[in-house]
Specification:
single chain, alpha/beta, eight-stranded mixed sheet, two-stranded antiparallel ribbon, 16% strand
Length: 340
Amino acid sequence: GGISTASAQALVADWCERYRCALGAFRDSDGFAPRHTFFYPWDEYEPGCLDQLATFCGDGYGEVEIHLHHRNDTEEGVRQKLTQCRDTYQQQHGFLGRRRQDHAVWAAGSGEATALPAYAFVHGNWCLCNGRPDGDWCGVSRELSILSDTGCYADLTFPSAPSPTQPRIVNTIHYGADPRAGERGPRVLSSVTQGGGERQSAVMMIPGPLALNWGGRKWGCVPRLENGELSGASPATPQRLQLWRRVGVHVPGRPEWTVVKLHTHGCIDENQPALLGPSMVAFHRTLAAICAEDRNCRLHYVTARELFNILKAAESGQNAAPGAYRDFVVGPPPVLSDRI
C-alpha cells in the first residue's frame, strides 16, 4: 500500500497481538486455538513481515502458504516465481511442510533426492488458469500443471463469485486440471470421494461455501450472495454459520466431516474489526456453545495444510477423529518443528 517497511512490520505485529488477545483463549476439540492461514503474496514479499508471522505461527496460531498476483505472464515466468517463493518461504522463514515419504514428489538435491517443499495456493484476483474472460491478471492457462510440478497440493482460490472467474462446479471438493484448448479457468479432473482412488500428482481444489443467503436479504427482498468472505461488511454471524453448515461441503462418503473454508483480506483496515473485534469473539463463543450443547459435534480449527490432510484421510477411508490426521500426508512446517 505504499507505506514504509517499518510501518508494515509494525502493522503485522499489531495484527498478531490483537489476534492473540481476542481469540487466544478459545480452543477446539483437540486443544488448538483458532488458526489462520496467511496466503502471503510473493509479489509483495517483505522478509520482516514474514519473520513476524513466523513467530506468530510458531506459537500455534496458523501457517503461511503461497499467494501470487501476476499479469501477462508466461509458463516459465510463473514456474520461476513459484519456485523462488517456495524455496524462500521454506528456507528463509521456516514455512511450508513436506510430503511424507510414501506421498513425496522428489527432486534432485545436493548428493541425494529430497522431497520438495509442499504448499497450498491462492491465485491473486481469482484468475487461476487464466480464468478471466478477457485473459487479464494471469496469462498462463497450464497453471495447475506448473503448480503441481512445483509442489502445490491444494488450491483454495474459490469461490470467487460474483467474479466472472467463478468455475461452474461449486461446493464440491475435487481434483483440478488445466483448461482445454480455447477454454479458460480450471476444469474438473475427478471428484474427491471416499475410496475413489488417490490422484497423487493432481492439485486438490478445496472450495468454500457458495449459496444464496435468504436470511440476509438486501432491501428486505433480494437474497445476498454467500461466498464465505469475512469482511467489515460481512462479519461472521450465527445465521451465516447455519448456512455454511447447511451447504455442507464434504468428501462424499464422509458427510459428517463438514468443511467450512472462509476467506478474507485480513490486513485491510475496514476488515480488521470483523476479524479481531467483538463480533468475531461472539462468533467463537457461539461455536463453543454449539459443541457444549451437542455432544456429537466436534470443532476442529485447521490451517489449509491440515484441512488438506484431513480430506486425504477421508478419501482413504480413515475412521479416527479428523484431528488425528492434521499431518497425514504433508508434515508440519519447520516453524512447528515440535510436531515433525
